[in-house]
Structure formats: C-alpha cells, structure tokens
C-alpha cells in the first residue's frame, strides 16, 4: 500500500509558476519511480513527468518540456513538480502516481490537486 497526498495547486495567471508536492507514506517510497499525470475537463488523463528512485533520471511530456521540473526528496518521502511559464492549456487536475514502470502508471494515485491558469 502507498498513500499519496498532493498539495500546492491553485489559480495563477498565464506566465506564472506553481510548485506541486506529493507526500507519500506506506510502501518504501525511495525504491520506486514516481510521476505526475493530469486530467483536463473532458479529456483523458495524460502523462506529465516521471522520476526514477534516485532522482537522477527524469522524463517529460513534450507539452511541458522546458517549463516543468520534477524532483524528489527521499528523506521527506516527497515528489515535487515545479511548473513555470504556465499556460491556460495547463489547466487540469494534477495527480501523483506510483510506483511507475517507465511511462506506465502504477497502482496508487493521490486525490489530485486543481491547477487553473487564467489568460
């Protein structure tokens, strides 16, 4: 079992920044690849970013590459998503997920945090 709790969402103007956090408990967090997904209204959930267990390997969706940065602090059992240069099309509910296998989501999801970017 792994429990994931996201925080840090909110309303921001286009061009602004937000940092999302995902606090994990339960299974040994620092052994697993983790990631972020998002779901916009009327759309399917989509991959955003992933990070391996050491933090040394990351990957991003093309739509966020160069603007978002995923990181982790294994001592705090927390994964972060720094989002810069936000666009209205980034508006979605953002979900933390693990343990991932490359780009495939794992069994555990957080409750999600809403990010709204106004134009």
Helices and strands in order:
Blueprint: E1 2-7, E2 10-13, E3 18-26, E4 33-39, E5 46-51, E6 58-60, E7 68-73, E8 78-83, E9 92-100, E10 108-109, E11 113-118
Parallel strand pairs: 2-11
Antiparallel strand pairs: 1-3, 3-8, 4-5, 4-9, 5-6, 7-8, 9-10, 9-11
Keywords:
119 residues; mainly beta; 7-stranded mixed sheet; single chain; 4-stranded antiparallel sheet; 11 strands
Low-pLDDT regions: none
Element-by-element helix/strand order: EEEEEEEEEEE
- Helix percentage: under 10%
Radius of gyration: 13 Å
How many β strands by DSSP?
Answer: 11
What class would the helix/strand composition place it in?
mainly beta
User: Helix count?
Assistant: 0
Largest sheet: 7 strands, mixed
Gross morphology: globular
In whole angstroms, the N-to-C terminal distance is 40 Å
Sheet-strand content, in percent, reads over 45%
Average pLDDT number: 96
């Amino acid at each position: 079992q792994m429990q994931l709790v996201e925080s840090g969402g909110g309303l921001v103007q286009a061009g602004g920044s937000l940092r999302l956090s995902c606090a994990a408990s339960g299974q040994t967090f620092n052994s697993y690849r983790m990631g972020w997904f998002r779901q916009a209204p009327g759309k399917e959930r989509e991959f955003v970013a992933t990070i391996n267990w050491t933090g040394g390997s990351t990957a991003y969706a093309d739509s966020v590459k160069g603007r978002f940065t995923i990181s982790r602090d294994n001592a705090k059992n927390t994964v972060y998503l720094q989002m810069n240069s936000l666009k209205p099309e980034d508006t979605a509910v953002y979900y933390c997920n693990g343990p991932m296998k490359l780009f495939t989501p794992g069994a555990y999801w957080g409750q999600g945090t809403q990010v709204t970017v106004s134009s």
